[in-house]
Design brief:
Layout: H1 8-15, H2 31-36, H3 56-66, H4 70-81, H5 90-105, H6 113-123, H7 129-145, H8 149-160, H9 166-185, H10 196-213, H11 219-237, H12 240-256, H13 261-273
Helix pairs in contact: 3-4, 3-5, 4-5, 5-6, 5-7, 6-7, 7-8, 7-9, 8-9, 9-10, 9-11, 10-11, 11-12, 11-13, 12-13
Length: 281
């Protein structure tokens, strides 16, 4: 099993390196498998078929995922995704599969792959940059989970730079920060820093996420996640004051947004690792 957005940084705390996969599960995807997910990117062409309004389940799933409740995200989408048929629901199907990829990857990354692939295939039928951003986000999460960090960085950079809502691009930057940290230490979660420049790039991604999150409906959740990432970067760089500052801000923002306990655990562990004032109390 391989937890990602809510727990990926927790593995870093214990090992001092990149996210580690539990020994129970060994992803078998090859680099070619990961790279092929994005083969269906749409090019400018004929007018797209008219799309129905986005079903409310998409928003419910997105907010549940950000809140650290992937099970609720799955519960929102699983019963209805198969009923979204026809050309008018291409956008809904693509985004639904992308969000399911994010939610499934929290626990078993292999379960994210078919949804990431479906999101890419559906997105290729439209010329909608928001839909394409969802597909790239799903591809990036799967690549991150199987520790193909170069592919993850490429997909998440594409999502972060797309013409999409600010909160979606903020999430892409947060996941990009995780991918950069993973690449800094390499597959397997070793303690040796291989690419220190990726820690600087991770910091830039988290700072970009903060700027994008400001004023969005999910600002507190996105800011909490971004501050957690900044605290992790500070830990690896040996910056005690910054670690404690960002861990405290992460805890405050996530508590204000009523995030789940497992999402709030990351900043708490960072603060304990840094022996910050008030940590563990």
């Amino acid at each position: 099993m391989n937890r990602l957005a809510t727990t990926c940084l927790l593995a870093l705390l214990a090992a001092g390196g990149a996210c580690k996969k539990d020994e129970v599960s060994t992803p078998t995807a090859t680099p070619e498998d990961v790279a092929s997910l994005g083969d269906g990117a749409a090019e400018a062409g004929p007018t797209d078929p008219p799309q129905d309004p986005d079903p409310p389940e998409l928003r419910a799933a997105f907010e549940a995922y950000l809140r650290g409740d992937p099970e609720a995200a799955v519960a929102a989408l699983d019963p209805v995704l198969g009923t979204w048929e026809g050309d008018g629901r291409i956008r809904a199907r693509a985004m639904g599969h992308a969000l399911l990829a994010l939610a499934r990857a929290e626990d078993v990354v292999e379960q994210a792959e078919p949804h990431a692939r479906a999101a890419s295939e559906e997105a290729a039928k439209l010329h909608d940059p928001e839909v394409t951003a969802h597909a790239r986000l799903a591809e990036g999460v799967f690549a991150l989970g199987v520790e193909h960090f170069d592919d993850a960085v490429a997909a998440l950079e594409a999502a972060a730079s797309a013409e999409a809502p600010a909160e979606l691009r903020a999430l892409a930057q947060i996941l990009l920060g995780q991918a950069r940290i993973g690449r800094a230490y390499g597959p397997g979660g070793g303690s040796k820093l291989l690419h220190p420049e990726d820690l600087d790039a991770a910091r830039a991604a988290y700072e970009a996420a903060l700027a994008l999150a400001d004023g969005t409906p999910t600002a507190a959740l996105l800011e909490g996640r971004a501050h957690e990432g900044l605290a992790a970067v500070a830990k690896y760089k040996g910056e005690h004051e910054a670690l404690c500052e960002h861990a405290a801000k992460a805890s405050e923002r996530l508590a204000a947004a009523e995030a789940t306990e497992r999402l709030r655990e990351g900043p708490r562990l960072l603060a304990e690792a840094g022996r910050c004032e008030g940590a563990g109390g």
